[in-house]
Specification:
Order of helices and strands: EEEHEEEHHEEEEHEHEHEHEHEHEHEHE
Helix content: 25-40%
CATH superfamily of the largest domain: Medium-chain alcohol dehydrogenases, catalytic domain
Radius of gyration: 20 Å
CATH class of the largest domain: Alpha Beta
CATH topology of the largest domain: Quinone Oxidoreductase, Chain A, domain 1
Number of domains: 2
Bound molecules: nicotinamide-adenine-dinucleotide, zinc ion
Amino acid sequence: MKTKAAVLYEANTPLVIEELDLDDPKEGEVLVKIGAAGICRSDWHFMAGEAKTALPAVLGHEGSGVVAEVGRGVTSVKPGDPVILSFVSRCGRCHFCTTGKPNLCDLHMATSTTMLDGTHRLHKGSTNYTPLSKLACFSQYSVTPETACVPCPTDLPMDKAAVIGCCVTTGVGAVVNAAEVKPGTTVAVVGCGGVGLNVLQGARLAGATRIIAVDINEGALEFAMQFGATHSVNPSQQDAEARVREITGGLGADYTFEVFGSGKTVEMAYNMARKGGTVTIVGIPPDGDDPSIDAVALVRQEKTLKGTYYGSAQLQVDMPRMVELYQTGRLNLDDLITRSYRLEDINEAYQDLNRGEVGRGVIMEF
Ligand SMILES: NC(=O)c1ccc[n+]([C@@H]2O[C@H](COP(=O)([O-])OP(=O)(O)OC[C@H]3O[C@@H](n4cnc5c(N)ncnc54)[C@H](O)[C@@H]3O)[C@@H](O)[C@H]2O)c1
Ligand SMILES: [Zn+2]
Ligand SMILES: [Zn+2]
């Protein structure tokens, strides 16, 4: 069949909207009609050449849709089912899948530019197109592995389902699964965009009492107050590390999160943590932009430095929990989504992200 998609041919050039050929789903795969796709900074890293993949590629890894057709052997979903798309497809057999860390599936990562069987479904002429994260949801239709499909309630709006597909699960999961924030503690969040806002509301949910939003964009800081922030700090206007220490009684925060993606902001999050504190890195710095961390201070101050991928989540279990938290009013996804676009306007959507428009943008028309 044909599908209209946004294609990245070369870094630092606009995405091109065009019609591609999409193969039928193979065994263990599903054809999904995309309902919504979020504008996440992780896609931008490829557009800006800050991260590399095989080009041409169809990006888009924060999505939702409705199952249109299933391949042989698919049992967990059927045509008509609404699904949240997972940007990691577990193989179910590797070390990580069998030890409770399916978000780190080896086969998924080893086949990062193709489907799990090493082949492509998107083509034009003799050219194969990389399906980012095996989702490629900046497209009308997508063929995904069955394990990328997480069934969701029919009354969950597609835009809410899409953001649960990345920024919500990543942000809330960073707090509850990776850092394991305890009630009554202090939290600082460096970078308060789509993912950072969910770290903030995850911290509120976990019972943190002082939740400090740190961002260079005043608009983002103001917006963050709706998502649980109790204090805001702008590093371009003040010594942010000193200010966080001041807010936390001279100690530094119990938990800090880096949610922009740069060596400098990783260092900032590291320095904002108290002795014995936990520093969790969510953002993905450009290739080669590494932080400088003093190993001796790490030892003497007994800090814990950790990364978290996809909210360290068990996706088939944690995503339905995010749905439940939204539907019972504990997670605010209504105000999180501030902009909607047509697929044709995707380059503008990324300009808005980089201009510092607050909240999350979502493509709703394909
Ligand atoms: N770990 C994961 O699994 C995972 C999943 C999704 C996204 N990410 C990464 O998380 C990061 C954030 O993604 P997003 O979609 O929320 O991006 P975003 O653009 O919506 O938000 C980034 C925020 O950081 C702020 N910022 C920029 N420079 C800053 C600075 N020097 N100090 C403080 N704040 C600064 C921006 O003003 C913005 O509010 C990206 O690197 C993305 O690739 C990681
Ligand atoms: Zn994302
Ligand atoms: Zn696996």
